[in-house]
Design a protein that fits this description.
about 190 residues, mainly alpha, 8 helices, three-stranded antiparallel β-sheet
Length: about 190
């Protein structure tokens, strides 16, 4: 809890990193993997039922036809079939998502024809996909600034699961929300 508070407090007040606050809140409130987070589309958010649907991931791939080291971003399926899942959302998470949508509309209006609408929930100011590796590097940089070296972005997922376990969420329900293929992984990691 202390590192979580330090992380959020620092990001919220920092002039450089404050723009990542919403992303961190969403990651802490959903248990998403970075690749799943980057792949979220507008149709994945169900505001009526306060749910998020994980249907795809965004990953960096090497062009097989290129002789050079040409990389590109591509969308794919989650790691396992269980990775395609529905995550219930807290009211606070829904509020952040609504704020993100408002900001997106502002970005679209400002950019006009330059906006590349990919239907992504989280994207650059011009609508392009967020690079998962850049998000990881940013997380490492933030952790270094608060003196919490050694943390990995996956720790946000673990924190979400830990909070659920502390609230006595059923392990089968937690398995489904985290998208684990089997209950053993959930039990071994979070109990």
């Amino acid at each position: 809890p202390m590192q979580e508070e330090s992380l959020l407090s620092f990001v919220k007040s920092d002039k450089v990193y404050h723009k990542y606050y919403d992303e961190l809140i969403i990651l802490l409130g959903t248990g998403l993997r970075i690749s799943e987070f980057c792949g979220l589309t507008d149709s994945d958010i169900d505001f009526e039922n306060d749910e998020l649907h994980v249907k795809r991931t965004l990953y960096k791939a090497k062009d097989p036809d290129e002789t050079s080291s040409h990389w590109y971003l591509d969308f794919g399926d989650p790691k396992t079939e269980a990775g395609k899942r529905t995550i219930p959302l807290y009211d606070s998470t829904m509020e952040i998502l609504a704020k993100v949508y408002e900001q997106q509309e502002t970005n679209k209006q400002k950019a006009g024809a330059a906006y590349d609408d990919n239907d992504l929930v989280f994207c650059t100011q011009l609508g392009k996909p967020l690079e998962p590796n850049n998000m990881r590097r940013t997380f490492y940089s933030i952790c270094e600034k608060i003196g919490a070296k050694g943390l990995h972005p996956h720790c946000l997922r673990h924190t979400y699961a830990t909070r659920c376990a502390e609230k006595n969420v059923d392990m089968r329900a937690l398995q489904a929300v985290l998208g684990h293929a089997n209950i053993r992984e959930t039990i071994d990691t979070y109990t």
